[in-house]
Specification:
alpha+beta; 2 domains; four-stranded antiparallel beta sheet; 41% helix
Length: 354
């Protein structure tokens, strides 16, 4: 019988961070305490990319984080290759800064392939590379739609795409054309691959701490979709700061990363469907109260939900009905908080319908 892994304990002299302090750190690093006056690639780099199985999620996620953002700005960043949309962490579609694409791909590639082999066994192993060569040849002259690729695209949707580094090429995967069905070779669209796996894993660890930290290595692994053992040597870096949570678990952090005080005000924010801050790797922050997790994530609503944040935690959800953004609150709010929610809903409504 295999022993359960022991929960890492922090050094007794490591500073303790309360859940509320971790919540404020997460919000600050995710640009949710104040909209940032920065470029789209800089915002994506800061937050570790945005999950975009539903194309508008990237747009709305950036709207919540970047001051003065227009929808056309996001589409232009994709067209000009400053932002890249591809299957990366946890085999899900992400919108990332161009500088992060190859390190993220290098750090996750082997884990994704091993996952595919576990799911489909030797069938993938026997046919993967052969079909990958055919897919590369088909895309050698430029991007093609999944309809054009025919049977090869079915391999992409399944597992063959894990043997070829592919990106979603605009206008597909944009606000205007939401189906991400135009595929291109990453080395053609982004440029030559310059990252190896160790570089990729280090980049993933630093990206997570920059965007979500302080955190335990298992949180990084959960977000990236790689075994936590792969991060062990990198996590031992003596230049990383060490904290502990209220239960004594060790938390890692980057030097000089922001750690706002517990009483830092947190404005109302709207997060899109599948925002990574709602997933279990960020559970330590208390951003999604556990009673609401089964409301947001259930097999009966695979589309997930956009959520409303008040004082740094989910208090309800929002959806678009008859072309307009409408909230559904899970709990009663003060008059002031409700007015702030209505104001933010109104801003998103005007932005998304313009």
């Amino acid at each position: 019988m295999r022993d359960h892994p022991r929960v890492p304990r922090s050094r007794s002299d490591a500073p303790v961070l309360t859940q509320r302090r971790l919540n404020r750190a997460l919000l600050a690093r995710q640009l949710l305490l104040e909209r940032a006056a920065c470029s789209i690639p800089d915002a994506l780099h800061q937050v570790g990319g945005l999950q975009t199985q539903y194309a508008p999620s990237g747009y709305i996620g950036l709207w919540s984080r970047v001051a003065g953002l227009r929808r056309d700005d996001v589409t232009r960043a994709l067209e000009e290759r400053h932002a890249i949309q591809a299957t990366l962490m946890r085999a899900t579609i992400h919108l990332v800064a161009a500088q992060d694409y190859w390190p993220f791909a290098a750090g996750t590639r082997r884990a994704l392939r091993e996952w595919a082999l576990r799911q489909a066994g030797s069938q993938v192993d026997r046919g993967g590379e052969q079909h990958a060569q055919a897919l590369r040849a088909a895309l050698a002259d430029g991007p093609r739609t999944t309809a054009d690729l025919g049977a090869m695209a079915s391999g992409f949707v399944g597992h063959v795409g894990l043997w070829v580094d592919l990106v979603r090429v605009p206008p597909s995967g944009t606000w205007e054309r939401r189906r991400a069905d135009l595929l291109g070779l990453a080395e053609t669209w982004v440029g030559p691959d310059t990252a190896d796996e160790p570089t990729g894993l280090r980049t993933l660890l630093h990206a997570y701490l920059r965007g979500f930290g302080p955190a335990a290595p298992r949180d990084v692994a959960s977000w990236a979709g790689v075994p936590v053992t792969w991060l062990r040597d990198i996590a031992a870096d003596p230049t990383l700061r060490r904290f502990q949570d209220a239960d004594g678990r060790e938390l890692l952090d980057l030097p000089d990363a922001p750690l706002p005080e517990e009483d830092t005000p947190a404005p109302v924010r709207l997060l899109p469907h599948w925002d990574a801050n709602l997933l279990v790797h960020a559970r330590r922050s208390g951003l999604l109260p556990e009673p609401y997790r089964t409301i947001i994530f259930t097999s009966k609503r695979p589309f997930s939900a956009g959520v409303v944040l008040v004082d740094g935690r989910v208090v309800g959800e929002w959806s678009i009905r008859d072309g307009h953004v409408e909230p559904t609150l899970y709990e009663a709010l003060s008059a002031t908080d409700r007015a702030d929610v209505d104001d933010e809903i109104g801003r998103l409504d005007a932005w998304q319908s313009a």
